[in-house]
Structure prediction request, 836 residues.
Amino acid sequence: MPGSSAITRITAVDMRYPLPPGAGTDAVHTNPEYSLAVTHLETDDAQSATGITLTLGEGNRLVCNAIEILARPLLGRAIEDLMADFGSVSRQIANDSAMRWLGPHKGVVHLALASITNACFDLWAKARGVPLWRLLLELTPEELVGTLDLSYLEEVLPRQCAIDLIRSHQVSRAEREGILKSGYPGYDTSIGWMAYDDDKVRELTKRALARGFSAFKLKVGSADESRDIRRAHMLRECAGDSATLMFDANQQWNLPTAMRMCRDLAVLRPLWIEEPTHPDDLMAHVELASAIAPVKVAAGEHIPNRVVFKNFLRSGAMHYVQADATRLAGVSEFLTVSLLARRLGLPVVPHVGDMGQLHQHLVLFNHIALGHEVNFLEHIPHLRQHFVHPAQVEGGVYRTPQEPGASLDLVNLSVIVA
Amino acid sequence: MPGSSAITRITAVDMRYPLPPGAGTDAVHTNPEYSLAVTHLETDDAQSATGITLTLGEGNRLVCNAIEILARPLLGRAIEDLMADFGSVSRQIANDSAMRWLGPHKGVVHLALASITNACFDLWAKARGVPLWRLLLELTPEELVGTLDLSYLEEVLPRQCAIDLIRSHQVSRAEREGILKSGYPGYDTSIGWMAYDDDKVRELTKRALARGFSAFKLKVGSADESRDIRRAHMLRECAGDSATLMFDANQQWNLPTAMRMCRDLAVLRPLWIEEPTHPDDLMAHVELASAIAPVKVAAGEHIPNRVVFKNFLRSGAMHYVQADATRLAGVSEFLTVSLLARRLGLPVVPHVGDMGQLHQHLVLFNHIALGHEVNFLEHIPHLRQHFVHPAQVEGGVYRTPQEPGASLDLVNLSVIVA
Prediction:
């Protein structure tokens, strides 16, 4: 390494990316402008790194302002030194004596920590000249766990238990490394946005089938319930009997409505119903998951931290853990939730607030290092032209990224911050 | 009324109030600068109104910026018209299609909604020329419930159930109106901040006893557990056998530590242990509440919304509901949680992010209109010189406020926004 990669400049950047009409719409987000609150790091040896979190436009600036405040402790730190004890750094930032009041560990301040953390991991991998998945796989169990804040998990995942879990999967790693060659399967969310009309859904589904996808997600939670049902039947007909379907209500239903709609949608054999009700409503998820079996519940896109996940995972509230490293406190808390989920026997199928750029690394680590089963990774190509190294999805499969870092660098960003 | 009190100007103001050394300190907030993110409203008939939420300094500006964005729908609205359907207004703001992503219903955006909502209730009471408690008591059950967003509570508190609950207590109101004359009892939090040394705690306790208080709260959760135990014994000795004591860990403990400390502190017969662990950890609260009985658990200061409260209230996670109208979405969601708590048989003992200014109105309503028992209201006098109408606490009792509005007007604010 040419230098210590000490962080000499931190810039928060408010990046906005308008979408084509109807793209990204769902039951509660009716007019999204995909926006990234970016943490840009520069070092004394001319490295640069990018961390992101997603917002939907208005308010993105608030997250940038929070980044500016919370990232201060990083300035001047050499990246290897920083990451050797990143669990403590993360905990210190998350528990800033004043900013903590604005969460704690949720909302704007936690989104900011996500962006900051992801930039640190990007820089770390670049400084070592390897893609993030390789960096994570090459850490010892102790080094990996040292990047995590395991506080408030003591009764379920004490530090030694996390280390042992990783170590116990080391001997069998080779059996799982084939995924690096075959690529990680994807599923397509972009066929079924809420505002798309039937013809468009059909056309996009056919095109995705032709491109190799066999799993599709449809937005439900419309004010017109019959529209949801009609579209779901249409998708099943169009995609075929063997396709995997998922329905996503984006929190729109209350519990009685969710009960009714999940039963009505069950005839279409969905793999899961996603975000059936308010993401804070643990007991509603538990009641629902029990009532609609064998239909499964997926959630996580709006579950803010490891403590809430611990509660959902332990109580039977969900079957698919949609952790998101841009909602949680970045790579670090994503890995923590992945360890929790592995310990409690649940699969992690990320929600991709990063459009899959970062998560393509993390699902490889989850499978190879933690022994998580291979599922599929959400694919949303909206922003691909804005990434320097857009995820390569071919034949419905994410090709393993080879560039150093976390694949988060954005086109034109270095010009903007210059 | 001289006019329609249409809102013509909305200003968000970042007010900071440094505290004396040690004041306001606890296990996790070590250097607080009490700060208010203020919503200031002006009307076409020269009324003005004030809403607040509390922060601890750094980050207060973020909440002000969120207020500026979220309050836009209020502009031009006549106050009676606005409040006739405030439940819908509140729901619309909380579910702003883009800003919702930053919560939902928690963190910076929800604190902003608290400030906005409280300003609306202040303006409404002033426009009618009555103190807020009287305004609320004079509303019909339908009018009161019309100010609430009851979404995601359908299985526990459907609209008609809320109306019936209020109506069922109307005939017996006269029995409870004596509280308006006697005043609502207070308890003193200011004797036991974390950074105060033993002598100071003793001196302040004696002074508070002499001023008529008989209930006291002590900060615990120190890194030095023996310090907590020693101070707790000291307080019991100083306050006497008949005093009511509460211990507040401010979320510092993990579950194993909380189990141990609550048992060690039980010999001092506290009324409750407050915020024993992470505020998102429902199951830890349930386990703890069951394990440490008959010691009771209090929480709520950091419970962000009615959905999370519904979960805590239904699961036996807490015995005392410390709802705070500056953490929840203002008066409206506070009343919603008060209805929920009444329905589920639990007492509401507010945390006072407003220093009791607003909550002195709300506990009167809770007792008289909802039949909640008389408990006591937290008393923190730090900011009293900054309020135009500081709460009058005499003989350990809050005297019923008589000025029109919600008692939130701040000294010098009209000059600042002019």
About this structure: Chain B touches chain A through 60 residues (CB under 8 Å). The mean pLDDT of chain B is 97. Chain B has 17 helices and twelve strands. The radius of gyration of chain B is 20 Å.
